[in-house]
Structure formats: C-alpha cells, structure tokens
Write a structure and sequence with these properties.
This protein has 63 residues and is an all-beta fold. The chain is built from no helices and 4 strands.
C-alpha cells in the first residue's frame, strides 16, 4: 500500500499517522489534520502533519 501524497491531504482530512515514538512498532494514531508540515509533493515514509490535538506524525492512510 502506497502512502498518500501531499495533494491527497488537506486540513480537515481524517487520517491515521505514525508518531515518531511509534515508528518501530508501527502503531497508528487517528486524528484530523490541522497543518501539513512536509513541503515536497511526496515522501517515502509519508507526509508529516500536525493533528488538531497537536500530535505530529507521518500520514500512513486517509480515512
């Protein structure tokens, strides 16, 4: 499964992200995108975003 590109994600999108501390386990965290932090159109590990609750991680899937 390919990770979503930047063009597929916008503020308000509900996503599953992997937090920095969860990268080894792959545990996903669900939330709503507040801000996109990655400027490039794509990233091999996922676009980095900040959720509305302040958590930062890389998008693994769009819900």
């Amino acid at each position: 499964m390919a990770v979503p590109t930047r063009s597929q994600i916008s503020p308000g999108t509900k996503v599953n992200i992997v937090l920095k501390e969860d990268q080894r386990s792959g545990t996903l965290t669900q939330g709503v995108v507040e801000r996109l932090l990655t400027n490039s159109p794509n990233h091999p590990h996922g676009i980095k975003v900040r959720l509305d609750d302040g958590q930062v991680g890389r998008v693994k899937e769009i819900l």
